[in-house]
Design goal:
alpha/beta, disordered C terminus, binds adenosine-5'-triphosphate, transport, ATP binding
């Protein structure tokens, strides 16, 4: 059976004056999955999430959350949805627990999930009695997740939850999201970090200047990534570049004062041996950017004209 949809956006568009921040995007989030909306700064991720929360109205297209829409259902469209845009806000002079009590009070008291329970889920049990002013940024983010969980959501929406966190904070936040989804919660998160999306998401939409540059599963994304590049520096790069042309299974290009070499390991080994054999000294051979990171830049940084031409087929060619 096909899982029910938590979010269905069709042709969703938002303009700010002359700028089209979100340009006819279509996104479907199934119940129970972790869905990533990935893109560089200004791609339109937050604008999409703000439309989801009803904070701004779309100019065109439709948006359903668990089959409900803002037009038809008003605030009831947000039933079962919780989360935060940018960073959650708390009273710094009150404890984490007191902040949660106040929020629960606004919602008419806690439901089945008590404050102690949600503090436990986000690993803040030992710190719930401390003032938020003394919390690290990561702890505040986790308290934000706890506040969202009090509403017992079916869909948790997180806007760049790991943004600004140190490596330990990032690790804790990713572990938290994984724990939450193992209990069946649907999570929709925005991110500009390919690693994060690869580690925790099932499906991803990559946005570029308001449009969808890629949509698919993480496995599909991996298949489209170019092979790992090696960066080669030699005593005579022009000669090394010439030696790389026409070798089967090998791609050598000049990039930022070094050579980017792509191919399988045996093919690269044979090429490097040929370079040395031709009397060119190898000064360094290091790993270039990770394949998925390279794909992310290809998808989101190409000039508009190139982007239109960068089809799935082109990507497949590159990844061969
Ligand atoms: N209220 C607004 N008025 C005018 N322009 C806006 C407004 N909100 C967003 N924009 C513009 O819309 C575009 C998309 O912004 P958005 O915040 O959605 O991007 P983002 O992908 O979330 O980026 P970031 O990672 O920097 O938050 C940007 O060019 C931004 O300047």
């Amino acid at each position: 059976m096909t899982p029910a949809l938590a979010v269905r956006a069709e042709g969703l568009t938002k303009r700010f004056g002359a700028l089209t921040a979100v340009d006819a995007i279509s996104i479907q989030v199934s119940e129970g999955e972790v869905y990533g909306v990935l893109g560089p700064n200004g791609a339109g991720k937050t604008t999409f999430l703000r439309m989801l929360f009803g904070l701004i109205r779309p100019d065109a297209g439709s948006l359903e959350v668990f089959g409900r829409t803002w037009e038809r259902d008003g605030t009831a469209a947000l039933e079962g949805v919780a989360g935060f845009i940018e960073s959650p806000r708390f009273y710094p002079y009150l404890t984490g627990r007191r902040n949660l009590e106040l929020l629960a009070g606004l919602d008419g008291g806690t439901g089945a999930r008590t404050i102690a329970e949600v503090l436990d889920v986000v690993d803040l049990t030992g710190r719930g009695g401390d003032k938020v002013a003394g919390y690290s940024f990561g702890m505040r983010q986790r308290l934000g997740v706890a506040a969202s969980l009090l509403r017992e959501p079916r869909l948790l929406v997180l806007d760049e939850p790991a943004n600004g966190l140190d490596p330990a904070g990032i690790r804790d936040m990713r572990a938290l999201v994984k724990r939450l989804t193992s209990s069946g919660l649907t999570v929709l998160l925005s991110s500009h970090d390919m690693d994060e999306v690869e580690e925790i998401c099932d499906n991803v939409t990559i946005m570029k200047r308001g449009s969808v540059a890629f949509h698919g599963t993480i496995t599909e994304l991996r298949h489209q990534a170019p092979p790992q590049a090696h960066l080669l520096s030699t005593s005579d790069d022009a000669a090394a570049l010439a030696l790389g042309q026409g070798r089967e299974g090998l791609g050598v290009t000049s990039a930022d004062g070094r050579l980017a070499v792509r191919g399988s390991q045996p093919v690269i080994d044979a090429y490097v041996a040929a370079v040395v054999g031709a009397g060119v000294a190898v000064r360094s051979l290091t790993l270039g950017e990770a394949p998925l990171e390279a794909l992310f830049f290809m998808l989101t940084e190409s000039a508009p004209a190139d982007a239109d031409q960068l089809t799935r087929t082109d990507l497949e060619e590159t990844s061969r």
